[in-house]
Write a structure and sequence with these properties.
By secondary structure, the protein is of the alpha+beta class. It folds into 2 domains: 111 residues, 2-Layer Sandwich (Nucleotidyltransferase, domain 5), CATH 3.30.420.40; 55 residues, no CATH class. It contains 6 helices and 5 strands. The strands form 2 sheets. Strands 3-4-5 form a 3-stranded antiparallel beta sheet, with no helix packed on it. Strands 1-2 form a two-stranded parallel sheet. The chain is elongated. The relative contact order is 0.09. This is ATPase BadF/BadG/BcrA/BcrD type domain-containing protein.
Length: 186
């Protein structure tokens, strides 16, 4: 995002621009600061924008190899997940680097979150934990907000409450806490 902004272009245009490169410019890829400095220098030297953009894609792949995949065996039949996988320029840079096709699954941007949820779910099941997840239909639930005045003391607090399906879910607004304790609806 930052590099696209620096190049005065939308991040969505980054991949298509990179794919139009005919002679990618080598961009220093050790760290973001060096990459940005090198990119600015290449702009000032008059290098074509498409070549700079694809050079950045290649720099990101080199950075991955030198930091994330260092001392790890990377084998063919590769899957690329996460939001960065939407950038076709980076996909192409990976394919060229590894000389193999890179598979980008549908909804790749969600795979990490789904994996994390599965890990948490399996860990919590082993501890006898029962989920509080209300289900995906929660968005269709009709919530009702109402209020009343407590006449239990001279403060006459206005107590607000929210309920759904005939059950009170939460109350707030009292000074003494008398109404805030609500049996949690299951």
């Amino acid at each position: 995002d930052h590099q696209a902004e620096r190049l005065n272009m939308r991040v969505e245009d980054f991949g298509p621009r990179a794919l139009k490169s005919s002679n990618p410019t080598r961009i220093a890829g050790r760290c973001t600061v060096f990459a940005e400095s090198d990119m600015v220098h290449k702009q000032q030297m008059g290098y074509p924008l498409n070549d700079i953009v694809y050079g950045l894609c290649q720099a990101m792949v080199r950075n991955y190899l030198n930091n994330v995949a260092l001392n790890k065996e990377v084998q063919p039949k590769m899957t690329f997940q996460g939001g960065v996988a939407f950038n076709k320029g980076i996909v192409r840079a990976f394919e060229e680097t590894f000389n193999t096709e890179i598979y980008v699954p549908l909804h790749n941007e969600l795979m990490g979150a789904i994996g994390a949820a599965i890990l948490v779910q399996s860990k919590m099941r082993g501890n006898g934990y029962k989920t509080k997840f209300k289900g995906f239909g929660i968005a269709q639930t009709e919530f009702k907000v109402s209020s009343f005045v407590c006449e239990g003391c001279p403060n006459l607090c206005e107590i607000s409450q929210i309920s759904a399906d005939g059950k009170t879910l939460s109350r707030w607004g009292g000074r003494c806490g008398k109404w805030e304790r609500v049996e949690v609806a299951k």
